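User: I'm writing a tutorial on reading structure tokens. Could you give me a worked example: one chain, its sequence, then its tokens, then a sentence or two explaining what the tokens reveal?
Assistant: Sure. Here is the example chain.
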Amino acid sequence: MARSYVSPYAIANGDPAQNHWLVEQGLAPWWTYDRLLLSFFRPVSALTHHVDYALFPDSPVLMHAHSLLWFFAVVYAATLVYRGVLGTTVAAGFAAFLYAVDHNHGLPVGWIANRNALPAIFFGLLSLRAYQAGRGGSRGAALAGPFLFLLGLLAGEVTLGALAYMVAYAFTLDEEKPASRATALAPYLVTVVVWRLVYNALGYGARGSGLYLDPVHEPVAFAAALVRRIPLLTLGQMGLPPAEAYYFVAEGLRPLVYGAAVLGTIVTVVVVWPLARADRVARFWTFGALLSLPLACTAYPHGRLLFFVGLGAMALVAILVRDAFARAAWLPLQPLWHVVAQPYLAATMGLHAFLSPFLLSLNVCSVATTSGIATRAVPDAMRAVTSPEDELFVLNAPEYFSVNLIPFFARLEHRTEPKRLRMLSIGPVPLEVHRKAPNVLDVHFVGGLLADPLSQLYRSARLPMNVGDTVKLEGFTVEVTAVTEDGRPERASFTFAEPLENPRYRFLSWAGETYARFTPPPIGGTVTLSAAHMPFEV
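And here are its predicted structure tokens:
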């Protein structure tokens, strides 16, 4: 099983044979894109997990404490950056406070598997501070900056956000000649190019997933995603609901969330533009945040991606508050601007200064809201397996982890693993299960598979399937018999090696909060299954 995950940050390596093996093992669904690539080169972050398992392998508490130390380091590094630009001022301190309690930072702190963001951001911020100090005359900082930047890239791709602020600094605050500015940026740009060439040569990147978009491998799809993702991320940074809400609300509410995001983005531009035009320090923070926004669009919109966007956003909020109280000369005279800006600033202040500290605590614990996967769903699935010859078939499940964690939990708890694990459907899709023959089930995926964005981890809805597409596995064959207008599987025929009454076959379906045993209908019969949803817990 180890070969499927060649590092802590790899799901699929782009090789069709290896991806087929993942499906065969039950670690990926039958509709997985055969050239799926989801593999990220993060050796520095991986090293932090090796430290965990070398020093305290049986203590999740200490692992979480380790993540907290990285978060404290991130806040400290951000404070250095604020002081480097704003000086030792109230505005710098207030910006650092807002950044420290920003609720968008919660998930990487509380989710050990997402710790990679923290060292990447820490080294990225240190490299940004070193770049600033180097432009101020520090030769040591100028030499250390590219090395710190490389460490950040080797911890996570999010470090590229630091380069966005370096470019913004060169265009807004650097008073040296253009040639000098270009010379200062050159080591960082060269580092990015070399890093990416090595990254590609080693086979890392993303391709074929609907959740992760690599601008190098899929530039057109990435450009199209910017239109949808940038407003959601902007709203998630400056207000509520959070960016990820778009993917968790009912499908009918998504246009409303997106409309609110577009409106919120327009209002943000209206409020910030006069300040950015009048104050070059504010221009630096504005351009840095804007340039880092596209870099946050490589994954589906989520607050965890906003560390570098928030760096500039919190500085702008601090400057706006400072200048509003000081009645700065740049403040527009038009009453309409004040009608928009005053409630906007009050709401933003209320959220980030007073509400965010509480939301941060909740977000740190957000992974626990799906604890039912580990406490009910996976244990109930394991109980269905009583013999190493049993084959487990999951007709529907709310998401992937409730299925592909089953063999891992069985191995960790020394329980019986199924000989084979097969998943027929994932996500909130109602099913009509018709038994066509003793060993054949025809399944109608009402509305089609892959309609829910979060279900597109292993195959983007942009990659159509065709009627007649067949996936042959050991003792199990899937044939697509109907597709939606946009090429998503709508019906499929599942052929088993033996009649469905074979005692080795164990069928499960989702029953509200966990799995329940499923009995196939008689020949000619049909059973309807409701859409599978994962209940969130507090």
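What the tokens reveal: Residues 146 and 186 are 10 Å apart (CA to CA). The two ends are 33 Å apart (CA to CA).
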